[in-house]
Write a structure and sequence with these properties.
Elements: H1 2-9, H2 12-30, H3 38-67, H4 72-102, H5 124-129, H6 136-142, H7 145-162, H8 167-188, H9 191-205, H10 215-241, H11 246-263, H12 266-279, H13 285-298, H14 301-317, H15 324-339, H16 353-357, H17 363-373, H18 377-402, H19 408-411
Helix pairs in contact: 2-9, 2-11, 3-7, 3-8, 3-9, 3-12, 3-13, 4-10, 4-13, 4-14, 4-15, 4-18, 10-11, 10-14, 10-18, 11-12, 11-18, 12-13, 12-18, 13-18, 14-15, 14-18
């Protein structure tokens, strides 16, 4: 019991970070053998995914009811979509600029790459149509987040319009929110073990050494991710627009960012994001339950940045000269494609075709490029997911400020550790 008490007395983020470092070391020493413990990481991810759908549904319904005025949803929705699109455009601009400066594709030999099958991206029209579920129960079972959001909004608004008759269900949803957040906290206690197993597996089977084969491409992605997180979210949004401390923001967001790094999945990190938004960043449930699930589906800043860099990399490797209009085409196409990106590891690899085709890269060449970058994609995917989660939390904090749904005392609480 003494050691158990000591374990729980250590802040969760420190336990996760320690597990991450130990995982890297063990993976490098153990090599391929680390794959034998990946089941522990998969179990952790399954536990998180277990709470995603019920958490999103009950918190969103409860959040809408707490608004008291359905018309407020319109203002919240417009601001959310506008800032998500703006940050995605900034991310792709940073990526294209770095790719143009560093020129990671110049002189790269792709002749040894094994072509990979290219999955066609989901058309935007089909993506939009899927927002309206044919069967809400099926949408809940399948984990279709956009459809769940749509149905939850309808339920919440209907509860507001029927008044006292809907109070029992509204109270049930509010209680359900507390239940799901408590379960999320319990699941997070497993995080250090899950993170250790996942990082050991990645380090042992792929590792950072794989990035040495494409130093400039990896450098462009790493620099792009750092620049977007620090400048866009830390300086522009937190410090300049909101007059808040970037240090306090990153402190509050660190648990979610560490989980995002280990799982490489925005969807899997969603329960943690919602928890830290409310408890660390002062974002009230009405905003957290609306903005964050939407962000996990459509806000893919890291993906947009990466797809843009790889597209320019491919053009340089195949000797295709890009004009300013080509860069603008890539920026526009990437912004749209990122909206259709599944919130799961490696999904962006199979959504590059739509972007690359806009600048004249053939399907055969696209298959070669994807086959070339596939071996080292996982470490970069981990970084991209951190950017996505950071963006979700930054935007939710901004929208909460603008909608007067922000608790400054929670955000500015003194550091306890």
């Amino acid at each position: 019991m003494k050691y158990l008490s000591l374990w729980f007395s250590i802040p969760l983020w420190k336990r996760i970070l320690t597990a991450l470092v130990l995982g890297v070391i063990v993976g490098m020493l153990w090599g391929e053998g680390a794959e034998s413990i990946v089941w522990l990481g998969d179990l952790f991810v399954r536990l998180i995914r277990m709470v995603v759908v019920p958490l999103v549904f009950v918190t969103l319904v409860a959040g809408v009811v707490s608004m008291g005025d359905p018309s407020k949803l319109g203002s919240l929705g417009i601001k959310t979509l506008a800032i998500y699109m703006a940050t995605t455009l900034i991310a792709i601009s940073i990526g294209l600029t770095l790719a143009a400066i560093l020129q990671p594709g110049v002189g790269v030999d792709l002749s040894s790459a094994v072509p990979s099958e290219v999955q066609q991206p989901i058309p935007l029209s089909e993506r939009l149509m899927s927002i309206v579920p044919e069967n809400p129960i099926a949408a809940l079972a399948e984990g279709n987040i956009l459809a769940i959001i749509f149905f939850a909004l309808l339920v919440g608004i209907s509860l507001l319009t029927i008044g006292d008759q809907g109070k029992p269900i509204a109270d049930f949803m509010e209680s359900g929110t507390e239940v799901m957040l408590r379960i999320t906290h319990w699941v997070m206690e497993v995080a250090p073990f899950g993170v250790f197993a996942l990082i050991a597996w990645v380090s042992g089977t792929q590792g950072v050494a794989a990035l040495l084969d494409v130093v400039l491409l990896a450098l462009a992605v790493v620099l792009g991710c750092l620049a977007h997180v620090i400048v866009t979210h830390g300086v522009i949004i937190m410090k300049t627009m909101l007059k808040l401390s970037p240090v306090m923001f990153f402190r509050g967001a660190r648990d979610a960012m560490l989980v995002a790094f280990s799982t490489s999945s925005s969807s899997a990190t969603l329960p943690v994001s919602m928890s830290v938004a409310e408890e660390n960043l002062g974002v009230k449930p009405v905003v957290a339950s609306t903005v964050l699930p939407l962000g996990a589906t459509i806000n893919m800043d890291g993906t947009a940045l990466y797809v843009g860099i790889v597209s320019v990399f491919a053009a340089q490797a195949f000797g295709i000269d890009l004009a300013l209009t080509d860069y603008m085409l890539v920026a526009g196409a990437t912004t749209l494609v990122s909206i259709g990106t599944a919130a799961v590891p490696g999904a962006s690899l199979f959504l590059m075709a739509a972007v690359m085709e806009t600048i004249g890269i053939s399907p055969e060449q696209i298959a070669v490029v994807i086959g070339f970058i596939l071996p080292f994609d996982r470490p970069l995917d981990m970084l991209r997911t951190v950017v996505n989660i950071c963006g979700d939390l930054s935007v939710s904090t901004a929208v909460a400020n603008w909608e007067d749904e922000f608790d400054a005392e929670v955000f500015n609480r003194p550091l306890k550790y």
